[in-house]
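Q: Could you predict the 3D structure of Nucleotidyl transferase domain-containing protein?
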Amino acid sequence: MPPKASVGKEKLVDEDEEPLQAVILADSFNNRFKPLTTNKPRCLLPICNAPLLDWTLESLALAGVQEIFVICRSHADQVKAAIQNSRWANPASGLKITPILTAKQTFSPGDALRDIYTHGIIQSDFVLVYGDLVSNIRIDDVVRAHKERRRTNKDAIMTMVVKEASLAHRTRSPGDSAVYVLDRETAECLHYEPVTGYPPKKVVRIPREIMKEHSDIEIRHDFIDCAIDICSVEVPSLFQDNFDYGDIRRDFVHGVLTSDLLVKNIYCYIAKEGYAARVKDTRSYDAVSKDILSRWTFPLVPDDNYPGDTAYEHLRGNKYVAADVVLSRYALPLRPPPL
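A: Sure. Here are the predicted structure tokens for Nucleotidyl transferase domain-containing protein:
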């Protein structure tokens, strides 16, 4: 069945505008979930009884995205079959989803974006996410802010979505954080420095020129990278021109900001509301599962806008019961035997 429409929901995309496109990188480009991903891609692993990819598609549908390209190499046949057999294949869903098989030599997000450039499928500004994203952030608001900025600054090629969070936040990966140097007034990212968990990084070097050219900056280490980017059409071509760009953050963002030849700007959008997290490892898998059941991802919850096939009812204590199940008032859950 097609996605549920919210009553009185404002129209997200103007009729005169080009359809909003999105690119989903369905490959994880790492082995963190092996052996679970030996015979199945990470984006099809179930979370709260629905494939991860379906949660990502639901997130984009809520934002008004109309055309989605799913870029896949590993287990591409399974990804295509999952899309064809899902409710998103229904024309009434409002989404046009096109799976694209990349070359066998695609080993990084940079390789995938170079394939996107080769296919020539991007016609306007687009949303770039991974196939393991769960989010209820109003991406349409980020797109509007990005396009408004592009009207006055054609060199603004990317807007990265981040959220403020403590270092101990459970959806924040210990070995995957960064230091952002921002212009306080415009939120332009002036410098990006990845911080590795091991070996621990104790010193971050900020170019002196940034201090001279910008009178009011802020240095932030309290951001969670939501892995949601609004990109201009130029981004895939920049990956094509720079074959050493592999990772989007460590290589592309860092490379653009430190390049003397590329006069391009990258901005941050600090989301004050909403939820966004990637299921990048078993730790985040556990955290995101609990956040969904605790309704931090509303309206993406098991009893409303649920991407799976089963209809659930929400009971007190964050308990979810399938709508066709009748429980005795005396029924108790089985406890596992002691080890």
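Q: Anything worth pointing out?
A: Residues 139-152 form the longest helix (14 residues).
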